[in-house]
Write a structure and sequence with these properties.
The protein is α+β, with helices and mostly antiparallel strands. 33% of the residues lie in helices and 24% in strands. The chain has 13 helices and 19 strands. The strands form 4 sheets. Strands 6, 9, 10, 11, 15, 16, 18 and 19 form an 8-stranded mixed β-sheet that branches. A 7-stranded mixed β-sheet has the order 1-2-3-4-5-13-12. A two-stranded antiparallel ribbon has the order 7-8. The longest helix has 37 residues. The chain is globular and about 65 Å long.
């Protein structure tokens, strides 16, 4: 390992990075900026290192604004890898006097939602085909009936899930008419932040606030990339007392949802990318990284309100994705309970120790909080509990992390056999064959070292493991 590590460190030094490694944590900084805080990366020695991701982290740590503010700390989770917008996926950024829209990006409040169901795996698999056909209709062919009043839509964007529920209880529309709204209300406490941030409908696309019935094509949709809906089996329980308290039992059916704010997040993210650029002080040079922070208090407040608006939409998107699945289980199997275990966001900017903490592809891991770390559709997923580790900025990974790009998997000449892609035995439901290839298990790092490194570092503890049965990919 040592000769290989030395070669790596020399290569990174030639790229302008000052890098050290103690066998567990990398410390990364731009050689040209000794005053910038080093970015820390938790990474086991057997996982691959990507120089581009290190460059992105170092530039993030070196961010400055002519008007002041500072980057206090940058941390990356062990699933980190380069991001398309210049910010590495898995980055956690602690600032004071600065907010960085690019450190969240356009997939605002991308996150995970986990349910368990009082239904045996054997019974479910006996009606697998009927279930899949119904869900393909909902997720792919638009047979879902997702509607709400303009009052409910406005309340959602302003007040999150509680606001939507308050308006929907009086006049449920679409699939909400068949939902157990009292159950949804009781489950709000199992949504991170109670499913609400202080938003403002003015930041949302106009179609969401028009008078009359709102039928938004993006709601209850999975989205592309690494987003999914997966039906799973609770394979093993490690912390029985905690699992019992959370309603999780070995052998149960479970379903996990990974999605975000869809076009609303893109609408907000693109608008604020442009606004942040226009707000940059005239005559001041742009950072080499192209990542621009906001320092003006009014602009910071407006951006956070806009981000919160998209985040509220994302909470409802995941709720409705889950509700369509839960209603389908009830249609096929009768009165299935299928309670929520937890819903947790990845991409958000939140208050933290007198400043702001922005996560991009990283999961909050406060003490005693449920943490959901999915594997690929051919690997185990993990239900964890956070330890509130301050050095990790109370953050854990949001998956295993990509090991290969989508292009490398789909390019001409690449081995696309089921065995090479790790798809043997994987039940993936998608209308696009390229999605199965791009998101194949071979695209991802092994999940176990990623999880074990965080357990050893005192960031999370294992509660339960879940194995995939079938996965929907849009």
């Amino acid at each position: 390992m040592q000769p290989k590590l030395n070669r790596l460190l020399r290569a990174l030094a030639r790229e302008g990075l000052e890098v050290t490694y103690d066998g567990r944590l990398y410390s990364v900084r731009l050689q040209a900026d000794a005053n910038a805080p080093p970015a820390e990366v938790l990474l086991p020695p057997d996982l691959p290192v990507e120089g581009k991701a290190f460059q992105q982290l170092a530039h993030l740590a070196a961010l400055k604004h002519p008007s002041g503010g500072e980057v206090l700390r940058v941390r990356a989770t062990p699933d980190f890898h380069p991001g398309d917008s210049g910010v590495a996926i898995g980055s956690v950024l602690h600032t004071r006097g600065l907010v960085v829209p690019g450190a969240v990006g356009t997939d605002i409040n991308c996150g995970m939602r986990l349910h368990v169901a009082d239904l045996s795996v054997d019974d479910f698999l006996a009606r697998r085909d009927a279930f899949v056909e119904r869900m393909k209709g909902h997720y792919f062919f638009g047979t879902r009936d997702v509607a709400m009043s303009s009052r409910a839509s406005t309340a959602l964007l302003r007040d999150g899930i509680p606001g939507w529920l308050l308006e929907t209880l009086d006049a449920p529309l679409g699939c909400a008419r068949d939902a157990d709204l009292k159950q949804l209300d009781a489950e709000v406490e199992r949504i991170h932040l109670g499913g609400v941030l202080r938003g403002n409908p003015d930041w949302a696309p106009e179609a969401l606030t028009r008078e009359g019935v709102v039928r938004d094509a993006g709601l209850a949709t999975i989205g592309g990339g690494n987003h999914f809906v997966e039906v799973q089996r609770v394979e093993a329980v490690e912390d029985r007392a905690r699992a019992w308290a959370w309603g999780v039992r070995e052998g149960q059916l479970a379903f996990m949802i990974h999605s975000g704010s869809r076009d609303v997040g893109k609408h907000v993210g693109v608008a604020w990318r442009d606004r942040t650029r226009k707000a940059w002080p005239h005559g001041a040079p742009f950072p080499d990284s192209g990542i621009l922070p906001l320092a003006d208090e009014t602009l910071v407040s407006q951006y956070l309100e806009a981000e919160a608006t998209a985040a509220n939409y994302a909470f409802l998107n995941r709720l409705l994705l889950a509700e369509l699945l839960r209603q389908t289980l009830r249609e096929l199997f009768g009165d299935v309970e299928a309670p929520l275990v937890y819903d947790v966001p990845h991409n958000l900017t939140l208050p933290y120790e007198g400043g702001w903490l922005a996560r991009k592809g990283a999961c909050p891991a406060a003490a005693e909080q449920p943490v959901i770390i999915p594997g690929s559709m051919g690997a185990t997923s993990f239900l964890m509990v956070g330890c509130g580790d301050a050095r990790a900025l109370e953050s854990a990974s949001h998956g295993a992390g990509r090991a290969r790009s989508r292009f490398s998997l789909s390019r001409a000449g690449a081995d696309q056999s089921e065995a090479a892609l790790g798809l043997k035995g994987v039940d993936c439901i998608s209308l696009r064959e390229e999605r199965r290839v791009e998101e194949a298990p071979a695209a991802y790092k092994p999940i176990r070292p990623v999880v074990d490194s965080q357990v050893e570092a005192g960031i999370v503890r294992e509660v339960a493991r879940l194995s995939p049965l079938l996965t929907f990919k849009a």
